[in-house]
Input
Amino acid sequence: MKTFFLSLALCLGTAAAFAQQLPAADEAAIRQVLRRVDANYTDHKFADMATYTTPDVSWVNIVGMWWQGRPQVQLAHQQIFDSIFKGVPFKMGKVAMRAITPDVALVNVYYEVGAFYPPDGVNRGTNKMGDDQNLLSLIMVKKQGKWLLTAGHNTVVDARAAANDPALAAKK
Output
């Protein structure tokens, strides 16, 4: 029984150690992937998405559309950026990342998003969205020594709600 608990403690301790800071080389490689993502968000062209995503990548966008597989994720991003996000500026902000295991990392990225007009990019006087901040949660995996994006989720940050964040209030 002592052996069991000692083994369990070692396993949990090892897992906790992995769920920490990434080695510098891995962090630099992940930041390179983020630069590619940012370039696509900035130039609104997603043709190179295959260079930084896994074939089975999935994405949940800000209105809950769930895209699965690289062809669908790439097509959907391109179509949305050709319509409702046409000409809309995106600016990367704060980035936070941590290792979950040696080959899996969680990356959170803030983006400033300019005004846009859903569902088709046309200003109808009452359909303006944007001019706000989004938070991306990205899962990165290391495959054959290369970091790739395998899942993403995008959430609009509600500034009014964020001002009442109980986690921030507890820090005061």
Remarks:
- The longest strand covers residues 90-101.
- Strands lie at 53-60, 66-68, 90-101, 104-113, 132-143, 146-157.
- Residues 24-43 form the longest helix (20 residues).
